[in-house]
Amino acid sequence: MKNREAQLKAFGRLLDIMDDLREKCPWDRKQTLQSLRQLTIEETYELGDAILDNDLEEVKKELG
Q1: Residues 33, 39, 40: CA angle, nearest 5 degrees
Q2: Which residues lie below 8 Å from residue 49, measured CB to CB, with a gap of 6+?
Q3: Is the distance from CB of 47 to CB of 62 less than 8 angstroms?
Q4: How crowded is the C-beta side of 33, counted as CA atoms within 13 Å?
Q5: 3-46 pLDDT, tens per residue?
Q6: SS3 content of the chain, % helix, strand, coil (to 5)
């Protein structure tokens, strides 16, 4: 059970960091649904290329 508690605590910290970045990062603040759409499409193509190249390290990077 302690491991589960540690995982939940770590996940909570991750969520806090993400909230902090969204509030303070100028890049994040200026994103719109349209800009995120385009960026997501580009990332999807990059992931697809990594898969076709069988480049597992690049797949991990693109999924990260």
Answers
A1: 85
A2: 58
A3: yes
A4: 0
A5: 999 999 999 999 999 888 888 889 888 889 999 999 999 999 99
A6: 85, 0, 15
CA 58 to chain centre: 14
In 17-47, which positions are buried (b, 16+ CB within 10 angstroms) versus exposed (e)?
A: eeeeeeeeeeeeeeeeeeeeeeeeeeeeeee
Q: How is residue 57 written in tokens?
A: 């390290």
Among 63, 36, 38, 64, residue whose Cα is nearest residue 51: 63
- Spatial distance between the Cα atoms of 41 and 34, rounded to a whole number of angstroms: 11
